[in-house]
Amino acid sequence: MNALFNNYSRRPISLVEGKGTIVKDSNGKSYLDFTSGIAVLCLGHSHPLLVKALQEQSEKIWHTSNLFDSPSQVKLAETLVKDQHLSHAFFCNSGAEANEAAIKMARKHTGKNHIITFENSFHGRTFGAMSATGQEKIHKGFGPLVDKFTYLPFNDVESLKQSIDDSVAAIMLEVVQGEGGVNPISEDFAAAIHEICSNNDILLIIDEVQTGIGRTGTRFAFEQTELKPDLVTMAKGLGGGFPIAGVLGTSELYDTFSPGSHGTTYGGNPLGVAVSQTVLDIVFEDSFLEEINEKANYLVNKLKETLPEEQFTVRGKGLLIGIDCGNIEVAPYIGEFEDNGLLLCGAGPNVLRLLPPLNVSYEEIDQAVDILKNVLVKQVNVQI
Predict the structure, then answer these.
(1) Gap between the Cα atoms of 44 and 66, Å rounded
(2) Distance between CA atoms of 268 and 74, rounded to whole angstroms?
(3) Which of 112, 132, 186, 222 is close enough to 123 for a disulfide, judged by CB 3.0 to 4.6 Å?
(4) Phi, psi (degrees; rounded to nearest 5) at 213
C-alpha cells in the first residue's frame, strides 16, 4: 500500500524513458509500446518536434485565462476544421470533459434531454460521460446516473429506428468502439443514423477521443463514412502526449455556447495548443495519412497470416486494431507479452488491442507480430 488511491490495477513496471516506439523501465528493460498511452502518443515518445514546441512555448508563457484573446487557439481551431463541414472549436483538457461539453451543448441547443448511445460504448468517467457510456461495469456503485440516456445494441438498425421519437435530442457514438472491443460501425448502421438525424432534427455527436487525429488513417474516423456529425469530441492524440482535448461543432451551434454557458480553467492553455499545432502539422499531411494506411494494412495482413482465423479475428481501422481471441480471456496473458518485451492493452475480456504510434516502423511491426505469435502459441496452445 502507498499514498495513492487504488483505483487503477497498475502493472508492476515503472516506465521512465521513451523514444519513438521504445520505452525503458526502471530496471533498464526495453519494450515495444503498442499502447501509446492508450492512443495518446500518436507520434511516439519524445518526438523531437513536439519537445521543441513545448520548450519554446514554455519560455514564453505557460498559462493565460480564457478571459483573453488567443490567436494560437484560433489557428489550432482553423487547422482542425479546414475542409470540414464543422466550423468552430472549444478546447478543454480530457475526453470526458469534451463529451460533457457536447452533451451540454446538445441539450441546450435542442431544448430536449433524451440522448441515445450504444451498448459497449465508452465516453468517460465523469457523471455525464459515465451516464452516456453503455457499460454496466462503469456505472456500478455510483448511485443514480444522469437520466435520459438510452443504450441500444450497436449496429442494430431496427432497434435504432424503433427508438426514435420527438424526445430525442441527439445520437452519440464512436465510429469504432475502442474500450468496448474494437467494434467498427457497419455501413448500413452509419447510413441509417445519417438518415434518421437528417429527417428528424436530431443532433449527431461523434466521440473521436480514441479514433481521431489520424488513428484510423484519416483525420477523423467519421470521414470514412457518410456520417455528418454536428459535434465531434477529441482528446488523446490531439496533444501527442500533452493533455488537451476539444469539441468541434457546426455553425448552427455557435450561438448555443454563448458567454457564461460553459468554461474551463486550463483548456486551450498555450503549452497544450503549441504542442497540438505541431502534432496536426505532421499528422494531417496527406503523405503521413497514406503511410498510416500502408502500415495498418501491413500489420493486419501479417496478423491474419500468422494467427489462424478459426481461433482469432482481426478487426479495426487504421492503427486501432483488435485481435478477438474468441472465448479466451486476454488479461492473464498481458504480463506474458510484457515479459517478452511488448506492451498491449485489452478491449473487453476477450480482445487484445494494438495501438502503436502512428509513425511505428515496419521492423517494429514485425517484432511485435513475432512476440504475439510466440506468446499465443505458448499460452493458448494454438498451432501456427
Answers:
(1) 30
(2) 10
(3) 132
(4) 60, 50
For residue 383, name the pLDDT band (cuts at 50, 70, 90): very low
Cα 151 to its chain centre, rounded Å, is 20
Q: What does the block give as the cell for 87?
A: 466550423
pLDDT digits (tens, 9 = 90+) for 208-248: 999 999 999 999 999 999 999 999 999 999 999 999 999 99
**Strands 168-173 and 114-118, bridge-based pairing:** parallel
Pull the grid cell for residue 154.
450497436
305: which residues sit within 8 A by CB, 6+ positions away? none
* Structural domains in the chain plus CATH codes: 15-39+294-380 (3.90.1150.10), 49-283 (3.40.640.10)
Cα–Cα distance measured from residue 270 to residue 244, given in angstroms and rounded to the nearest whole number: 10
* Distance, CA of 312 to CA of 256 (rounded, Å): 47
Residue 189 half-sphere exposure toward CB, CA atoms < 13 A: 19
> Residue 308: its pLDDT value, please?
86
User: In angstroms, rounded to a whole number, what is the distance separating the alpha carbons of residues 110 and 311?
Assistant: 47
- Kindly report the pTM of this predicted structure: 0.96
